[in-house]
Amino acid sequence: MEIIAAFLVTFVGCEHLAIMLIEMFASPQKQAEYFDLSVDYTKQRPARIAMANQGIYNGMLGFLILVSYWLLPRTYHLVVTQLLMIFVVVVALYGGFTVSRKVWSMQMLPAVLAGAAVGFCIL
Question: Where exactly are the transmembrane stretches of this chain (predicted)?
Fold first, then answer.
């Protein structure tokens, strides 16, 4: 189960780093495509600023997930990672209701699976 947990947690962390790159550096056309938004919206300066701000949060979250899992002692990394997966699930649940249902399959499902795998490692 440790290998599955490591893979899933790493996937969730890298996914958030990838989301950061899209939110901060992708073209408005790509952002519209990835996030089911209109290009007219993603071209607006306030939208670009908001997405960049959200991107830095996703990047820091991805970084924290990876660092906490791979660098903290086992006793701590399992609990901290479990809490971070709960955080991702709650935020993705809200995002699925407010932005796109796609968030549930793309962000929430991997975090649920990673959290469950880490939970089995704690037992």
Answer: 56-72, 79-97, 103-122
